[in-house]
Amino acid sequence: MRRIASVILVVLLGAPAVVSALELSGSLIQGGVVRGEVQPGSEVVFDGRKIRVSEQGRFVLGFDRDAPEKMRLEVTRPDGQTSVRALRVEQREYDIQRIDGLPPRKVTPNEADLKRIRQEGALIREARKRNDPRTDFATDWIWPVTGPISGVYGSQRILNGEPRRPHYGWDIAVPTGTPVKAPAPGVVTLVHDDMFFSGGTLLLDHGHGLTSAFLHLSRITVAEGERVEKGEKIAEVGATGRVTGAHLDWRMNWFNSRVDPRTLVGPMPEDRAAAGE
Ligand SMILES: [Zn+2]
User: How remote is the CA of residue 216 from the centroid of ligand 1, in Å?
Assistant: First the structure.
């Protein structure tokens, strides 16, 4: 009897990967960022596209603002066995936000502005194509600044009375000069002093296509190519680009999908939101 028990124990210890073929953590919701783990050496296909899996079996994926309700995740283990997980993506309703008093040219740019906007957009798109093997996304995230929220992810925007593209960031209204901290480790992939819409702009790459953008900065204190740790100061809040006042706009992408940073970091600490520190 004792002998049989020890044989069973050995079998169980020898096959833990079969028990956990796929683990997901995060919100299955539009804008959600989901981190996952599979048996090392597995292949993961999300929405028909093969995604990067680290040597330890880690991956990350993101749902766009308007992601459909049904999506598919396919995992093929090193032994060739494939399993399919049907993902049910919670559908959201987004707020409408009206902002008046913006300089008219920032709402309806002229020809020269449009050329500049296209060039700046190309720089950002290029930086977001990276697919680095780093797994900096596998951490507990922090807010880059804390304070009152003045704009939310996904909202429909009406600027000076005209409907414009949705807002993809979280706006935190804090004074110019407030330090901006890295919400997670990463590598600085873009530094720009003055973009048409976003003013002082910084992109941080957290690996596997997950990036943060920090907009309207007055000062950037790190350089392109630099590695930063979580909590390290990377910039200062400002009022540059298309703004009505000083604030940080923090947004995130998984490649070209616009994702919601709040699904990683959680709600703004309440005391900070109230005190506006
Ligand atoms: Zn904003």
Answer: 9
